[in-house]
Design a protein that fits this description.
single chain; 103 residues; mainly alpha; elongated
Length: 103
């Protein structure tokens, strides 16, 4: 659950939403398969949504990027909350539309 909620660090610390799940994954990758899996899922999601946000940021110049940027940001926050809730119940969560960078 903490790996998912750590994505909210993007609101306070630049790149905190990527660094925190990475650290959690590295710590628990050999001792807890469930925590490692969910931290890896959160890490992949945050990298993906960061890239989507960068692309939308470029599209701001074409006046269509701002709605996309807001949609990506709001969707990310909503999915983080859902993922944290499911993980707290012991259910693995898979983010939609993400690229699996870390296997």
């Amino acid at each position: 659950m903490l790996a998912h909620l750590s994505a909210l660090l993007m609101l306070v610390i630049p790149l905190g939403h990527v660094v925190a799940p990475f650290i959690i994954w590295r710590i628990y990758r050999e001792t807890s398969p469930f925590i490692a899996d969910q931290a890896k899922e959160s890490l992949n999601a945050q990298i993906s949504y960061s890239l989507y946000g960068l692309a939308a940021g470029v599209l701001v110049l074409l006046l269509i990027g701002l709605p996309l940027l807001l949609l990506i940001w709001a969707g990310n926050i909503i999915l983080v909350i859902i993922a944290a809730f499911k993980a707290s119940k012991g259910v693995a969560f898979r983010y939609p539309l993400i690229i699996r960078f870390v296997q």
